[in-house]
Write a structure and sequence with these properties.
Blueprint (H helix, E strand, L loop, with lengths): L26 H12 L8 H11 L3 H13 L14 H4 L13 H10 L1 H14 L5 H13 L4 H13 L5 H13 L5 H25 L8 H12 L4 H14 L6 H13 L5 H44 L1
Helix pairs in contact: 1-3, 5-6, 5-7, 6-8, 8-10, 10-12, 12-13
């Protein structure tokens, strides 16, 4: 693979020291810095341009100043008259805005040093994640605590879960936290129940994948519809397996999702919840079939006997 940068519109100059901070910078921090580099003519007298920048990036003046303080703290820029020791975001962290706040490296470190309970929480989380926390990690921890107001136990369980499923990146943790908050899952008990339900779903889904030979590929639309319904109804896996066996037998060795789904739907409507219930129902069904077959055989016998009797009577009359 070969990449060529196109400099048709000119060259964008950025400090080389920026490179080491890119993996840890937020989207807003990178947007502001790139915007500054794209408008070097405004840097000498930045205040008039600040309003334009807030509108373009949908950020408040204080948010942009926080970002400037962040890059100044990293030694990437210098802003005359800006006090990076002030913590605007932390001082106002009890105000819920439309976006999670960002903090400079100095702000994050200062907060950790001044708050023993938070420092202890960070130590526990760093042990769970298996790494030493940097200012970037503290920044993300502060968002979980100050923006979402999650309890320490909630944060510990959230991070432990993300580590367990091998998705311990801060991007995934923040996204999960946002989704949980929007769903009203904001207490330890609710989170514990939520994760338990997800574990059960993954376990049943895994068993179904193996049974149907789906493997790790994505479900098709028809597969997704029926399988999600089985999972949503908390269908016992033994019932699913039994329905599969019946389907393969009746469909000449081929899997029919419609046929299999119909079996499970009928069982659900009939209140059949266990394999024992299903086996009993099948035996009753077979018994009725045998009775009907026997009844038909008896009727045929009497009908044939009556016919032979009538035929004999006619022969006698003729004689």
């Amino acid at each position: 693979m070969k990449i060529e940068l196109k400099y048709t519109g000119g060259i964008l100059n950025l400090p080389l020291g920026l490179a080491e901070h890119i993996p840890y910078a937020t989207e807003e921090q990178l947007k502001v810095l790139l915007s500054l580099a794209c408008a070097p003519q405004h840097l000498g007298d930045f205040e008039p341009y600040l309003t334009t920048l807030t509108q373009r990036l949908s950020l408040s003046v204080n948010e942009i100043k926080d970002v400037l303080a962040f890059w100044m703290g990293k030694g990437v820029i210098y802003v005359e008259g800006l006090d990076v020791s002030e913590s605007e975001a932390i001082q106002n962290d009890n105000v819920m805005n439309n976006r999670a706040p960002t903090y400079t490296g100095k702000q994050a470190l200062a907060y950790v040093e001044s708050n023993k309970a938070f420092s202890s929480l960070c130590n526990e989380c760093s042990a769970i994640m298996g790494k030493s926390f940097t200012a970037h990690d503290y920044n993300n921890m502060m968002q979980l605590k100050s923006y979402y107001k999650f309890s320490d136990e909630f944060v510990l369980l959230l991070i432990a879960h993300c580590v367990e499923i091998d998705k311990a990146s801060w991007a995934y943790i923040r996204k999960t936290a946002s989704n949980l908050y929007d769903e009203g899952i904001n207490s330890y008990s609710k989170l514990e129940e939520h994760f338990a339900a997800r574990r059960n779903k993954r376990s049943l889904e895994y068993k179904i994948r193996r049974l149907l030979g789906i493997g790790e590929r994505e479900f098709t639309k028809s597969e997704k519809n029926v399988i999600e319904k089985w999972i949503g109804l908390k269908t016992d896996f033994d019932l699913i397996s039994k329905a599969y066996d019946i389907t393969i037998e009746k469909c000449q060795g081929k899997l029919s999702y419609a046929y299999m789904a119909k079996i499970l739907e009928n069982w659900h409507i009939s209140g059949i919840k266990t394999l024992e219930d299903a086996e009993k129902s099948l035996e009753e069904y077979k018994g009725k079939q045998r009775l009907q077959m026997s009844s038909f055989d008896t009727d045929d016998f009497f009908e044939a006997a009556l016919k032979r009797s009538n035929e004999k009577m006619l022969e006698r009359k003729k004689k």
